[in-house]
C-alpha cells in the first residue's frame, strides 16, 4: 500500500501491542442465514486457534475424503487468532466421518493449534464466499501508552461518528508489495490465476484508499458533496446522484446511508460534478493511471464501496492500567485496522511469528472482518 492513511480525528492517542497471543484477537462470524436442516452439505461451525481458513479447509477435505473444491466457507480468517466460522462439506450420500476423529484437540488442550466442532447440521447449498452478515471482534491491546481520558474520548467519538472505511494493509501483501506486483502484471508479467485475483483486488483497494484519503483530508468522508453516490447501510445497493435534501441529511446522520467511493473498473464513474472531480484528482498520478488501465483491461466493472464504516456496539473496558479490551461488530469486507488506525499505532506481535508459514501475498485477513 503506497498511500499514507490520514486520521479523521486528529493525532494518535495511544500506542500499544495487538495479538500478543491468539486469545487477544477473537473473531466470530455473524451468520447470514439459518441452515435448512436438509440437503447434501454438512454445515460445521468450527472454533480454531493457530490455523488459517485455508488450512482448516484442507484438513476437512482430507478428513472427509473430498476434493478441496467440495469445501465451502464464507470468509477468510487468520491463524494468529481464536476464530469461529462455518464450513460446508459436500457429502451427496449424507454420510459424515466420525466427528471425534476431527476434533482431537480443543480449548484447554495446550497453547498450540486446535480445531473444535461446535455445531453440525445439514444444508441444501454449498457455503459461498461472502455469505455472512458480518463479524464480531474482541481485541485486547496490551502495553497501552497514552492518556486514558484521551483514549476514552476518542473511542466515544468513533462510536458516535463512525470511521473511514479503509481497506486494511493485509490487502497489499507484506511490505505493500502487491501494488508493485500488480503494476508489473499489468505491464505484461505472467502470474498464476490465484495470484492474479489477489493482485486485482489489491489494485482496486489501493485506488479506493487514495480516494478515501483525499476525502478524509478535506473532511468530506462522512459528508455529502455535489454529485455524490450514496450506499445503503448494510447492503451493496447504491443510488444517486440526486440533489441534497433534508431527507438525505437525516438519513446520513442516522447512518442509514453513507457516501461512497469507486472500486475501479471499466465504464464511467457513477459520481458526477465535484464528487467525480475529487475522485479523478486523487487518481491522476502515473501509478494510479496504470492501475486504472490495468483494471479496465482485466474486465472489472465500476462498482462502489461505502466511505464510512460503523463499528456496531462498540464497547471498551480497561482490564488494568495498560490493557484495553475492545468489542465491536463490523460489516462484511471491513477491517478492524480501520478502528485501530484512528486510535494510534498498534504493533502486531504476530508479524514476528513464523513468517515463513504465512501466505506469500500476506492475504491472511487477520484484521479483516470478512469478505
Q: What would you note in describing this structure?
A:
The protein is an alpha+beta fold. Among the domains are: 33-129, Pseudouridine synthase (2-Layer Sandwich); 171-309, Pseudouridine synthase (2-Layer Sandwich). The protein has helices at residues 53-64, 148-161, 177-186, 193-217, 246-253, 273-281, 286-297, 337-343, and strands at 14-18, 25-31, 41-49, 71-73, 82-90, 114-123, 132-145, 163-164, 230-232, 238-239, 257-263, 303-306, 308-309, 312-320, 323-330, 344-348. The strands form 3 sheets. Strands 1, 2, 3, 4, 5, 6, 7, 14, 15 and 16 form a 10-stranded mixed beta sheet that branches. α3 (177-186) crosses α4 and α4 packs across α7 (286-297). It is globular, with a radius of gyration of 21 Å. The two termini are 19 Å apart.
Topology (SSEs and partners):
Blueprint: E1 14-18, E2 25-31, E3 41-49, H1 53-64, E4 71-73, E5 82-90, E6 114-123, E7 132-145, H2 148-161, E8 163-164, H3 177-186, H4 193-217, E9 230-232, E10 238-239, H5 246-253, E11 257-263, H6 273-281, H7 286-297, E12 303-306, E13 308-309, E14 312-320, E15 323-330, H8 337-343, E16 344-348
Helix pairs in contact: 3-4, 4-7
Total strands = 16
Radius of gyration: 21 Å
User: The CATH topology of the domain at 171-309 is what?
Assistant: Pseudouridine synthase
Structural class: alpha+beta
Number of helices: 8
The CATH fourth-level homologous superfamily of the domain at 171-309: TruD, insertion domain
Helix content: 25-40%
Order of helices and strands: EEEHEEEEHEHHEEHEHHEEEEHE
- The poorly predicted ranges are 354-371
What's the CATH architecture of the domain at 171-309? 2-Layer Sandwich
- Approximate shape: globular
- In whole angstroms, the N-to-C terminal distance is 19 Å
User: Could you describe the largest sheet, including whether it forms a barrel?
Assistant: 10 strands, mixed
* CATH class descriptor name of the domain at 171-309: Alpha Beta
Oligomer: single chain
Overall pLDDT level: 91
Our estimate of the beta-strand percent is 25-35%
Amino acid at each position: 500500500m503506497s498511500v499514507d492513511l490520514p486520521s479523521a480525528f486528529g493525532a494518535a492517542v495511544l500506542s500499544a501491542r495487538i495479538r500478543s497471543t491468539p486469545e487477544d484477537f477473537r473473531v466470530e462470524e455473524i451468520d447470514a442465514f439459518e441452515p435448512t436442516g436438509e440437503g447434501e452439505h454438512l454445515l460445521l461451525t468450527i472454533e480454531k486457534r493457530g490455523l488459517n481458513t485455508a488450512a482448516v479447509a484442507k484438513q476437512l477435505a482430507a478428513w472427509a475424503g473430498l476434493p478441496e473444491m467440495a469445501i465451502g466457507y464464507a470468509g477468510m480468517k487468520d491463524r494468529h487468532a481464536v476464530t469461529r466460522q462455518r464450513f460446508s462439506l459436500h457429502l451427496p450420500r449424507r454420510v459424515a466421518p466420525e466427528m471425534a476423529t476431527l476434533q482431537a484437540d480443543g480449548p484447554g488442550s495446550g497453547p498450540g493449534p486446535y480445531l473444535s466442532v461446535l455445531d453440525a447440521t445439514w444444508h441444501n447449498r454449498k457455503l459461498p464466499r461472502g455469505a455472512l452478515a458480518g463479524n464480531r471482534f474482541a481485541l485486547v491491546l496490551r502495553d497501552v501508552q497514552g492518556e486514558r481520558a484521551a483514549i476514552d474520548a476518542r473511542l466515544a467519538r468513533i462510536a458516535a461518528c463512525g470511521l473511514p472505511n479503509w481497506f486494511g494493509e493485509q490487502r497489499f501483501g507484506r511490505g505493500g508489495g502487491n501494488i508493485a506486483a500488480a503494476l508489473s502484471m499489468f505491464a505484461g508479467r505472467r502470474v498464476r490465476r490465484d495470484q492474479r485475483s489477489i493482485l486485482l483486488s489489491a489494485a482496486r483497494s489501493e485506488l479506493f484508499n487514495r480516494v478515501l484519503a483525499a476525502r478524509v483530508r478535506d473532511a468530506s468522508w462522512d459528508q455529502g458533496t455535489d454529485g455524490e453516490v450514496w450506499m445503503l447501510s448494510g447492503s451493496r445497493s447504491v443510488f444517486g446522484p440526486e440533489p441534497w435534501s433534508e431527507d438525505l441529511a437525516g438519513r446520513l446522520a442516522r447512518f442509514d446511508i453513507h457516501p461512497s467511493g469507486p472500486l475501479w473498473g471499466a465504464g464511467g464513474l457513477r459520481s458526477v460534478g465535484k464528487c467525480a472531480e475529487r475522485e479523478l484528482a486523487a487518481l491522476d498520478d502515473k501509478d494510479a493511471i496504470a492501475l486504472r488501465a490495468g483494471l479496465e483491461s482485466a474486465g472489472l466493472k465500476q462498482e462502489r464501496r461505502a466511505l464510512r464504516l460503523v463499528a456496531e456496539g462498540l464497547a471498551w473496558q480497561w482490564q488494568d492500567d495498560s490493557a484495553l479490551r475492545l468489542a465491536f461488530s463490523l460489516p462484511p469486507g471491513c477491517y478492524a485496522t480501520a478502528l485501530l488506525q484512528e486510535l494510534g499505532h498498534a504493533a502486531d506481535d504476530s508479524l514476528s511469528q513464523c513468517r515463513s508459514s504465512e501466505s506469500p501475498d500476506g492475504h491472511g485477513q487477520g484484521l479483516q472482518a470478512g469478505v
